[in-house]
Design goal:
With 478 residues, the chain is an alpha/beta fold. The protein has 15 helices and 15 strands. It has a five-stranded mixed barrel. A five-stranded parallel beta sheet has the order 9-8-10-11-12.
């Protein structure tokens, strides 16, 4: 009777219909499941989680999956891993508080071999490895990133975590979202399409493909062969950021870089933060200023050297050298003229000395006794004689003084001009100016009539320049 009252409380009857309350329906379902008794179930472990005092796993086959709760006490001998093929024994269980169903495991046995899905994934991984899909050269993430493309769901925490990290570390980085499904049927195809579209646009410097954590079934799209090959063939550097530490999706092997979480991927894209960028920019500007200063100083030195060379070989310098040579020649001529005049002066002095040695006064210096005795007798004659000698001496001195330096200088100048005229008369250019020419053969030797051949190239030197011609015809002078 008490049992009938409890059942009556789980539902009411209206118009012949049983209407259950939520808790009543769950209690009824729980009782029905218990009445089914215990059973053996065989399948493949597709997901594992460890919470509180229980060990949770998902057992699946090709068409269905079963959530199982395993007490830790029965895992002392064997602890299953994803991909194992196992046999479990237990009973159905329904949590009345939240309505979640699970299979309560009492015994667990590992079967030989691997599960079908694990075997398929293993074979796919081996084939991709043999083909070198995972071994292609990995590209580094650019140090300076301007645009980041994110291939993930537009809802959820992933895109918000990435956006928040980028703004915090470097707000100058632009974010492009390529929204797509990340789990469930058709997710792999949509992820591939979004990745191909991002590569075709080419707007971004680096791509991030990923999602947050989830069960093994939720991560299956990132094991898809088509998506893995698309990741490996990406034209842009790509980061795989599937937030699951226990498993490694194949996209992680194919990507250039694997990040543990989407937040970590965003940090990789902002290796240089805004503050570091400002510091680096200041340092670069300082180095640039120093390089510019050194470059300008080097160019100034080169310009000064060029100006020095130009000054050394320029017209002014050449004229200066010619002027120096002219001044040197004039100085040498002046010195030669002075030497000549000095020699003439020396000869004049010697002649004067000789003349003074034979002066009549010295010849007439007789002893005083003779002069005294003859003074009276010769005074008249001596005065007459002395007057005549004085006149003659004056005449000789006058003639000597007016015949000397100027006449000799004029004579030397006339001789110098005569030599210059003779030298100029022998100048070949003077001969050419009178209408003559010189002919050279191809070996630049003076050619004669017999040595020249028709068609030979010759050079004719005239006073005004050089003519280059060819012998067309030879005519012997008759």
């Amino acid at each position: 009777m008490a049992q009938g009252q409890t059942q009556q409380a789980d539902f009411t009857v209206q118009d012949g219909k049983r209407i259950f309350s939520v808790s009543g329906f769950l209690r009824t379902t729980q009782q029905i499941l218990r009445n089914l008794g215990k059973a053996y179930v065989q399948g493949e472990v597709s997901s594992i989680s460890d919470k509180y005092q229980l060990f949770y796993l998902v057992l699946q086959d090709s068409t269905g999956s079963l959530s199982c709760a395993v007490p830790r006490a029965i895992l002392t001998r064997y602890k299953p891993v994803v991909g194992d093929k196992i046999l479990i024994f237990g009973s159905n269980s329904l949590n009345v508080k939240n309505g979640q169903y699970s299979f309560w495991v009492e015994q667990i046995v590992k079967l030989d071999g691997m599960g079908m899905l694990a075997e398929q994934l293993r074979a796919l991984k081996e084939r991709l490895t043999r083909e070198g899909v995972f071994a292609r050269p990995k590209r580094p993430i650019p140090l300076f990133v301007n645009r980041v493309g994110v291939i993930t769901s537009e809802v959820g925490s992933v895109i918000h975590d990435i956006e928040r990290t980028l703004k915090r570390r470097n707000p100058l980085v632009e974010l492009y979202l390529y929204p797509t499904r990340v789990q469930g049927e058709g997710a792999a195809q949509r992820l591939t399409a979004a990745l191909n579209y991002a590569n075709s646009q080419g707007l971004c410097d680096v791509l991030i493909i990923g999602r947050g954590g989830g069960s093994f079934e939720d991560l299956l799209p990132f094991y898809d062969e088509i998506l893995v090959r698309a990741v490996a063939a990406s034209r842009l550097p790509i980061i795989s950021a599937v937030g699951h530490e226990t498993d490694t999706p194949f996209c992680d092997f194919a990507a250039d870089v694997r990040a543990a979480t989407p937040t970590a991927a965003a940090e990789l894209c902002t290796a240089i933060t805004h503050e570091q960028l400002c510091l680096n920019l200041d340092e670069i500007l300082q180095k640039f200023d120093k390089l510019m200063h050194n470059a300008v100083h080097e160019q100034e030195q080169k310009l000064a050297l060029c100006e020095q060379k130009l000054h050394s070989f320029g017209p002014e310098q050449q004229l200066g050298l010619k002027q120096q040579r002219l001044q040197l020649c004039l100085k040498q001529q002046q010195e030669a003229l002075i030497r000549c005049l000095m020699k003439l002066k020396e000869r004049e002095t010697l002649a004067t000395q000789k003349l003074l040695a034979y002066e009549p006064k010295s010849q007439l210096a007789l002893p005083a006794q003779q002069l005294v005795s003859c003074l009276g007798r010769m005074q008249q004659a001596l005065e007459s004689k002395h007057s005549e000698q004085a006149r003659r001496l004056q005449t000789a001195l006058y003639a000597f003084e007016h015949s000397s330096i100027s006449a000799r200088s004029e004579q030397l100048r006339q001789r110098y001009l005569s030599l210059i005229n003779k030298l100029e008369a022998l100048d070949p250019l003077k001969i050419l100016k009178r209408g003559y020419s010189v002919t050279l053969n191809a070996h630049r030797q003076v050619a004669d009539f017999a040595s020249l051949e028709v068609g030979e190239r010759i050079e004719t030197i005239l006073a005004e320049g050089i003519l280059i011609s060819e012998v067309v015809e030879k005519k012997q002078r008759s």
